[in-house]
Amino acid sequence: MNGTGTAAANDRVFAALANSVRREVLRLLRDGGPQPVQALAAHFDMARPSLSEHLKVLRDAGLVSEQRSGRQRIYRLEAAPLAEVQDWLHPYERFWRDRLKGLGELLDRMPDDDAS
Amino acid sequence: MNGTGTAAANDRVFAALANSVRREVLRLLRDGGPQPVQALAAHFDMARPSLSEHLKVLRDAGLVSEQRSGRQRIYRLEAAPLAEVQDWLHPYERFWRDRLKGLGELLDRMPDDDAS
DNA sequence: ACGATAGGTAGGAGTTTCCCTACGCGTCAA
DNA sequence: TTGACGCGTAGGGAAACTCCTACCTATCGT
């Protein structure tokens, strides 16, 4: 419907990223590959059930997936939602590109012609 | 400290983006240029003070700036934090590029050699 | 000076987040 | 089968979020 996923889906992804614990989990999965919850939990001070809830938030956002292996749950990074974030970001790129070129400054600072 | 802003700053930016009203405000500023609050408020059903609070969240995240002009406040998109989001995203890019190439599949599905 | 306009702030209600401590369920080892 | 291990869920409490209705300040037009 939207250019980049539904509004609710974007809400879920951005909200999931709006927490340093969850961003760190993603980084650990990115740099360390798929891991069981234990291995992830070792990096945090919090009680393990709290981390479980963070993992649920990440799962609901589609940012990680789990695969059962014996009594372990192996979590893996799923980057598709991040690709959508990048797509969402695209239309804004010209704003910082323009800034760097020092050009858009004047153009952007005063196009008050059509705003009522 | 971090590669891309402090954790708290990223929290603020991602949290600001985790709301469809605020994302729509950014889109309006991107497509319509700098605008007063009135012009933005016209696009939403909510009471105007509620939108004011959304604008405060965006301001605190550094995503918009205001410039007073008479009794109006002209809001402008500030894309720098979005550029930092893109930077934050970069280390994850290979994950969806690999997926597209259909290569990383096998590589990523089982590098369980160093995870304790 | 007076009223209308633009927009922020105060405070409150309902919901959600984030952490905790129990506890339940499935799996492995003895 | 019995116990330990790996993880999730339940439920609760503190704080934050999101909306509202007043209300306040500053500016413009008359």
Main attributes of the structure:
homodimer, 116 residues, alpha+beta, Arc Repressor Mutant, subunit A, three-stranded antiparallel β-sheet, 58% helix, disordered C terminus, DNA-binding
Question: What can you tell me about this protein's structure?
Answer:
Chains A, B: InterPro entries: ArsR-like_HTH, HTH_ArsR_DNA-bd_dom, WH-like_DNA-bd_sf, WH_DNA-bd_sf. Chains A, B: It holds the Pfam family HTH_20. Chains A, B: This is Metalloregulator ArsR/SmtB family transcription factor. Chains A, B: Residues 2-97 form the HTH arsR-type domain. 2 copies of one chain form a homodimer. With 116 residues, chain A is an alpha+beta fold. Chain A has one domain: Arc Repressor Mutant, subunit A. Chain A is 58% helix and 12% strand. Chain A is built from 7 helices and 3 strands. Chain A has helices spanning 7-17, 20-32, 37-41, 48-60, 80-89, 93-101, 104-109; strands at residues 35-36, 64-69, 72-77. A 3-stranded antiparallel beta sheet of chain A has the order 1-3-2. In chain A, a hairpin with a 2-residue loop joins strand 2 and strand 3. In chain A, helix 1 runs antiparallel to helix 4. The longest helix of chain A is centred in the first third of the chain and has 13 residues, at 20-32. The model of chain A is unreliable at 106-116 (pLDDT under 50). Chain B binds a DNA duplex (30 and 30 nucleotides) through residues 15, 19, 21, 36-38, 41, 46-50, 52-57, 70-73.
